[in-house]
Amino acid sequence: MSTLINLIISGLATGSIYALVAIGFTLLWQTSQTINFAQGEFVMLPAFFMLAAMNAGFPFWAAILIGMALSMLILGVAFKRMLVDPMLKHGVLPLAIATMALSLAMKESVKQFYSAEAQPFPSLIPSIDLHVLGAVVSTQSLGVLAVGIGAVVALQFLLTRTSVGHQMQATAQNPTTARILGIPVERMIMYSFLINAGLVAIASVLVTPLYLAKFTSGETLGLAAFIAAIVGGFNQVRGAIVGGLLLGVVDNLAATYISTQYRAAVPLMLLIAVILFRPQGLLGSAEERTV
Amino acid sequence: MNLDRIILLVSLFVATAVLIVLPFQLGRYGLYILSMWAVMAIGAIGLNLTLGYAGQVSLAQGAFVGIGAYSAAILTTNHWPMSVAVLVAIALCFAVGWILGYPALRVQHHYLAFVTLAFSTLAYLVFRNEEWLTKGIYGISDVPRPVLLGFKMQSPLRFYFLCLASLGIVTLLVGWLIRSPWGRAFVALRENPIRALSLGIDTRRYTLMAFAIGSALGGVCGALYAPLVEFIDPTPFTLGLSLNLLMMVIVGGAGFFAGPFLGAAISVLLPEWLRFTEGYYLLIYAVFVMGLLIYSPTGLLGILDKYLTARSTKKASAARASATATFGAQS
User: Fold this and answer.
1) Which residues constitute the domain of residue B173?
2) Is there a domain that residue B293 lies in?
3) How many domains does chain B have?
4) What is d(CA A237, CA B225) in angstroms, rounded to the nearest whole number?
5) What is the reported pLDDT for B2?
6) Distance in angstroms (rounded) separating the CA atoms of residues A128 and A248
7) Cα B39–B43–B45 angle (5° rounding)?
8) Would you call A272 an interface residue with chain B, using a CB distance cutoff of 8 Å?
9) Cα separation, A142 vs A127, whole angstroms
10) Domains defined for chain A, CATH in brackets
11) Most buried one in A109, A269, B198, B225, CB count within 10 A?
12) Interchain CB contact of A94 with B (< 8 Å)
């Protein structure tokens, strides 16, 4: 029982990181039909911005801010202007392939210009074991969970309670009508890219202390976020949250109770089952299918 | 138009001549790379059939190359002849590809891409974990090269010609397939499935067929890959290979017959040629792919196609203009 609680809490913690990355993924899809195959690398890169800033002599908190800013600039603005905008009119597939090439370029850049070795990364939250109801819970898990939930709540507030959020939702649902109503659609799309860049930077700060910073570390994370987004519902921010948390817990339980060799298979089975029997995702609403 | 056809035939002839003569000038490594190109081109041709002609997005071609490679490696190390191994690889990939086609009957486009992506990763897990069959991470070493009609294909040069001949056979078969009613049904499936259905094309069967045949060619690619590399372990068959094959097809030009040849050449040969840049070659390759796709989302042959179409419309409108001019003068 105590292991179960332990597994669920640490699963929720990783799940909240998956959720952050998955939300960014669905935001890009909704506002600009971009399937970002480089999303995992988008999480890997900010950690290296922060490491570089720390090497330049900045304290940890300043490095985090610099990393955030650089990530907004490069993964937000530059990504949209240089890759997405020119390719958007040509349909989903060429852009998806271009993001695959981008992920390769990002991995190779880090390997060439920084290091191929795994780098330790300082943790925002000190790791102390707490004893709750006989279970051992690390403060790191709780902290990650708290920051993750905080970010998600803030985003939900932005999207559902503010005028900018409503404009963004309108843009996502129907860009043409939104434009007629006088919403600056282009700026709203840019906001969604900036939000994605911010979310991956937060995820980077949370996840890197657990798994070290390495140029390949985006691969598994990207796949996990991908699965979380689809399982929850590709066209729903709410779905991505549920998908992320569910995936984190399922992954942890599968590793303990099923088999360590096939732990990665369980989320994939879940993905296939969801696509075949409920393509709109667990929480998603049915999307019009193009024929 | 006639001139274009002559140019096409001449370039085809030159390419074939180069592929036959060049190897005699190359060393061991050069031959290995050129054989790799021929092998990967077969896999990309298969994917081009599924994606380029029938319009079904698949991120699982790498998994079929893996299935083909493991079938060949397991059978030939157990002293079965290569021909049996190739047939088993084809049959196995055809069957699995057929089954994988079923999701395509339910979901399309990006959802289909996700299902095939999941399949690809699952296949990798099986290669890695089923040690009794695949020897897991230790891999299968000393995969023998075949003996064909009494000739040993051990030397790199002979094996290269075996790969090239296989590529030739596949090219002819696929070329025939595309011109046949089946090929036209595939294109109809891509362009407008509902119209194809209303014209009496069994879209269900052709969707499954497109997957099965494309996957079977992935199996052929794998069955040649195993004796080429002579050592098989799970690492080459991650999702990366599927993405790489997809990139080959798109970069060359999806839906163009020559696309996969060009795409495979860029993916296999360009990095080798860029080796003088030391560690930077993959980076340059990735940036090149992005730049190309921004400039021409239909790939390299898309550029040529655009140029040729522009020229022929210009010519046609010039012909029309001169025709109306003479007509006007006469009246």
Assistant:
1) 29-237
2) no
3) 1
4) 43
5) 63
6) 21
7) 110
8) yes
9) 10
10) 2-277 (1.10.3470)
11) B225
12) yes
